[in-house]
Amino acid sequence: MFDANDHMFSYIKEKNIAFIDLKFTNLFGGWHHLTLPAPRFDQRILEEGIGFDASSMVGFKALEAGDMVLIPDIQTGFVDPFFNYPTLSFICNIAEADTRKRFERDPRFIAQQSEDFLKSTGIATESKWGPEFEYYIFDRVDFRNDPFYTYFKIDSEESEWANYQGEGNQSGYQIAHHKGYHAIPPFDVLNNIRTETVQILESCGVPVKYHHHEVGSSGQVEIEVVLDTLTRMGDVTMLTKYVAKNVARKLGKTATFMPKPLYHEAGNGMHFHQHLFKNGQPLFYDKSGYGGLSQLALSYTAGILKHAPALTGLTNPSTNSFRRLVPGYEAPVSLFFSLANRSSAVRIPKYATNPMEKRVEFRPPDATCNPYLAMSAMLLAGIDGIQHNLDIRQEGFGPFDVNLFAKENGHVREKIASIPTSLENALECLNRDNDFLTRQSIFPSDLISTWIQEKMNKDFLEDRNRPTPYEFLLYFGI
Questions:
Q1: Contacts of 345 (CB under 8 A, 6+ apart)
Q2: Which of 106, 115, 134, 286 is catalytic?
Q3: Of the residues 214, 286, 366, 424, which is catalytic?
Q4: Is residue 342 among the annotated active site residues?
Q5: Is residue 167 flagged as an active site residue?
Q6: Peptide bond between residue 444 and the one before it cis (omega within 30 degrees of 0)
Q7: Is 323 a catalytic residue?
Q8: Which residues of 380-419 are buried (b: 16+ CB within 10 A; e: fewer)?
Q9: Which one of 271, 275, 324, 413 is the catalytic residue?
Q10: Active-site hit among 42, 47, 48, 53
Q11: Could you list the pLDDT tens digit for every one of the 478 residues in the chain?
Q12: Residues near 59 by Cβ (< 8 Å), separated by ≥ 6?
């Protein structure tokens, strides 16, 4: 938003900005904020930052060395529409309190280092990214997790069960199960919510491609934004989730990006479209290549697929992720690439025929990831594929232009590897294969260790150790 401090301070004065809000991302992808009155915001804070206790952020700092500072990035400024008083928000970089040296576990720093490494290789000068934001909008959600009392309850105006219970729209305009893709009003009752979300995103400086209803017939929607550079798209991802959830709440509903909130409904992915440029020229296009892809793009894709089992430890870092990643529901569980085939882990969008738009789409990720870390890891995997001149066909990654779920294609399916089937498996793969992340110290090796330990102990084991209502259905009477 701002290229110069003088411009920013003038804007604060002219627009009568009352508060400055500083936002930052923790290691696991959560957003936090700190707010100060605008008169306290001065040049000193821009240079020296404002302190916070990093030991309160899991995976950041030990208790005895917890002081860190937030340094606003003025280019990320936007007026926050959800505050009662005029508030200008900035996304912050995290630095050491004593030296002001960038904190090596700051997700934004890792993203920026990944971009710098790409340039240093001479392969490309920038990468561009475009996540697809899939999420559900529900009317009410209630849940409880006690040793003696466990449940969740979801109400959705669009759902079949709401009409059965006499709680739906009772209009007769009911989206059939799994038939929500591009539904139109009056079937689509969430259009205005998405429109307001998009309008706010645009006002915050996020260009949006489009929005629409998704396959899930109980309130699943999607927003796609215009592709942008890696760190910027990390910022956009955090902002999009923030806006979507706050708009839903303002309008009396609730939004979730969790990968599989409902059994037997479509899951929420966050597919990442990606491509490379050198001095503004596209590197992924070759008219004569398969799907219009260049050899460089194919080697990049081979790197993604070769490291995909390890990548899932970062791109799908939740137990719920693997309730989505099962055959069916367009879930991309097979490690191959193809033109427009939605059962593949990497898809080449057939409609992207312009050289500037030619790209690949990595489909397994979901919104439980830290976007800065996930995109950095994908980029480093792709670079590894290019530097090792991987041949995607010799690696056994296709292309396969068939429906692998069709019975007659079972012989093809047997030849293709699959992504991990659990968070435990994904973390084990990440533990075995992380040299492509740590070799330039872009991902500190102790960060990988911390990530695996926290995710294994706090996510996988805690989930595994808890009985579920379905287990009572299966086993209570034995």
A1: 305, 308, 332, 333, 334, 335, 336, 337, 362, 363, 364, 419
A2: 134
A3: 214
A4: yes
A5: no
A6: no
A7: no
A8: bbbbbbbeeebebeebebbbbeeebeeeeeeebbeebeeb
A9: 271
A10: 53
A11: 899 999 999 999 999 999 999 999 999 999 999 999 999 999 999 999 999 998 888 888 765 557 899 999 999 999 999 999 999 999 999 999 999 999 999 999 999 999 999 999 999 999 999 999 999 999 999 999 999 999 999 999 988 877 555 555 667 888 998 999 999 999 999 999 999 999 999 999 999 999 999 999 999 999 999 999 999 999 999 999 999 999 999 999 999 999 999 999 999 999 999 999 999 999 999 999 999 999 999 999 999 999 999 999 999 999 999 999 997 666 799 999 999 677 899 999 999 999 999 999 999 999 999 999 999 999 999 999 999 999 999 999 989 887 766 767 777 777 899 999 999 999 999 999 999 999 899 999 999 999 999 999 999 999 999 999 999 999 999 9
A12: 26, 27, 28, 105, 447, 450, 451, 454
CA-to-CA distance for 448 and 314, rounded, in angstroms?
10
What pTM does this model have?
Answer: 0.96
Tokens matching residue 68: 């860190």
Rg (CA), the chain: 23
271 is known as an active-site residue: yes
Identify the bridge partners of residue 255 per DSSP, sorted by sequence position.
137
Closest Cα partner for 334 from 433, 425, 268, 400? 400
Q: Find the catalytic residue in 139, 363, 384, 413.
A: 363
19, 85 contact by CB (below 8 A): yes
Catalytic residue among 139, 158, 222, 224: 222
Contact between 260 and 320 (Cβ < 8 Å): yes
Distances from the Cα of 351 to the Cα of 228, 277, 327, 347, 374, angstroms: 19, 19, 25, 11, 25
Do the Cβ atoms of 264 and 319 come closer than 8 Å? no
Torsion of CA 175, 177, 181, 186, to 10 degrees: 0
Instruction: Note if 104 is an active site residue.
Output: no
Determine which one of 139, 188, 361, 424 is catalytic: 361
Strands (E), 112-203: 126-138, 140-146, 149-155
The answer to whether 197 and 243 are in contact (CB under 8 A) is yes
Give the domains, in start order, of the chain with CATH numbers: 5-103 (3.10.20.70), 126-475 (3.30.590.10)
Report which of 269, 270, 364, 271 is spatially closest to residue 310, judged by C-alpha positions. 364
Query: Is 158 labeled as catalytic in the residue annotation?
Result: no
Residue 254 burial class via C-beta count within 10 angstroms: exposed 0-12, middle 13-18, buried 19 and up: middle
For residue 256, the SS3 value is: strand
Q: Does 463 participate in catalysis according to the annotation?
A: no
